[in-house]
Specification:
By secondary structure, the protein is an alpha/beta fold. The protein contains 13 helices and 22 strands. The strands form five sheets. An eight-stranded mixed β-sheet has the order 3-6-2-1-9-13-14-12, sandwiched between helices. Helix 1 crosses helix 3. The relative contact order is 0.12.
């Protein structure tokens, strides 16, 4: 048998009983003959609680010290899980991110992994241990300080270790049964997707799908790491994420194998789907710059300022007027809004625009599907469905396999449900189950 890397999110290890349940699953894998590496998040809402505590001490905690504080959550989880596995009769050893060889840059709060040297993990596996690794954290290559990887950091830790260890599969355990056609918290009739390409999953993740973040999927795709998303609360088979030509090439997990008939049924279902899923994002804001002189170089200067402010731009729309000026609108993470507006206002006289407007009450809806390449009329179906639901559109952006629109935040849930129904994605098998998590 091969190496299996598993990641368990905060809802999966939220309390002692949950930790014991996860430990039992891990022990089954180990007894089946696999070498098992486990990455864990902090228990439940521990990270958010630690942030709240820090902000009670100071509204602007130093980034280095905040990282030191936040990484304590994962260290608690790893130690407790290791204890539970040892009690169950299998030897386990726990490791912090730095002990596991997760080497990052020195950007506190959103560090990027630049290397993985899992020597101690390999030694533990060779000695017969289950290796438990604290997710979400690493150590700076230059400063040797502890760093955190930002949102989705534990998933990224798991994928990075799977790539470095050449694992057969990276299993991401969460509080839903796999990848769904929409967020089951918003669309009760969302349907589970048995297979999805890494290309489609990357676009869904980048568009706001919460089950996986885009940096995790991109890392997996770059290093050809097979992903298997499933629930730690059930025995259901979950969703396989692969760009392999045939799902049969996917190295499925230890305890469950698809029969040939089941595989064929799911492959055929994939081929027939035009839209794989509907994603939404409430975390963006919009900036509109009015009266931009319609001459070469102005847009370049504006977006240079935005880049210097550290904002990642998503959608951009420019409208050229008849009076020699234009209006530029773009979306960006809401957390970057204040700094970006301040930076733009500081160069208003230099660039020559008349006004900067900001709006943090927007929502983004995206439909994603490889079938869009060969099926005309997808845009018409989407816009008709949104119009019938009374949804007004403020921005539109498209790619080969994605259409995104911006609307009012308070209309977003209705827009998601309307799009989901319009593309026949509603399930007739009852409501999707969300097993845990508070959504903080």
């Amino acid at each position: 048998m091969g190496i299996v890397v598993q990641k368990y999110g905060g809802s999966s290890v939220a309390d002692a009983d949950s930790i014991k349940r996860v430990a039992s699953r891990i022990v089954d894998y180990k007894k089946a003959g696999h070498e098992v590496v486990v990455v864990v998040s902090a228990m439940g809402d521990t990270t958010d609680e630690l942030i709240d505590l820090a902000e009670q001490v100071t509204p602007k905690p130093p980034a280095r010290e905040l990282d030191m504080l936040l990484t304590a959550g994962e260290r608690i989880s790893m130690a407790l899980l290791s204890m539970a596995i040892n009690v169950a009769g299998v030897e386990a050893r726990s490791f912090t991110g730095s002990q596991a060889g997760i080497i990052t840059d020195d950007s506190h709060g959103k560090a990027k992994i630049i290397d993985v040297t899992p020597g101690r993990i390999s030694e533990a596996l060779s000695a017969g241990y289950v290796a438990i690794v604290a997710g979400f954290q690493g150590v700076s290559q230059t400063t040797k300080d502890i760093t955190t990887l930002g949102r989705g950091g534990s998933d990224t830790t798991a994928v990075a270790l799977a790539a470095a260890l050449e694992a057969d599969v990276c299993e991401i355990y969460t509080d839903v049964d796999g990848i769904f056609t929409a967020d089951p918290r918003v669309v009760k009739a969302a349907r589970q997707v048995p297979f999805i390409s890494a290309e489609e999953m990357l676009d869904l993740a980048a568009s706001g799908a919460k089950v996986l973040l885009d940096r995790c999927v991109e890392y997996a795709r770059r290093y050809s790491v097979p992903l298997h998303v499933r629930s730690s609360f059930s025995g259901k088979v979950g969703t396989l994420i692969t760009d392999f030509e045939s799902a049969r090439d996917f190295p499925v997990s230890a305890t469950e194998m698809f029969s040939d008939a089941r595989r064929q049924e799911q492959e055929n279902s994939m081929e027939q789907a035009i839209i794989s899923g509907v994603a939404h994002d409430r975390s963006e804001a919009k900036v509109t710059i009015l009266g931009v002189p319609d001459v070469p170089g102005k847009a370049a200067r504006i977006f240079s300022i935005v880049a210097e402010a550290g904002a990642n731009i998503d959608m951009i729309v420019q409208n050229v007027g008849t009076n020699g000026s234009s209006k530029i609108s773009f979306t960006l993470p809401a957390g970057d809004l204040e700094a970006t507006v301040t930076a733009l206002e500081s160069v208003q006289a230099e660039v020559g625009f008349s006004e900067v407007q900001s709006d943090d009450a927007i929502g983004k809806l995206s439909i994603v599907g490889a079938g869009m390449r060969s099926n005309p009329g997808v845009s018409a179906t989407l816009f008709q469905a949104l119009a019938e639901a009374g949804i007004n559109l403020e921005m539109i952006s498209t790619s080969e396999i994605r259409i995104s629109v911006v609307t009012r935040a308070d209309q977003l849930d209705d827009a998601v449900r309307a799009a989901h129904t319009a593309f026949d994605l509603d399930s007739d098998e009852g409501e999707a189950v969300v097993y845990g998590g508070t959504g903080r």
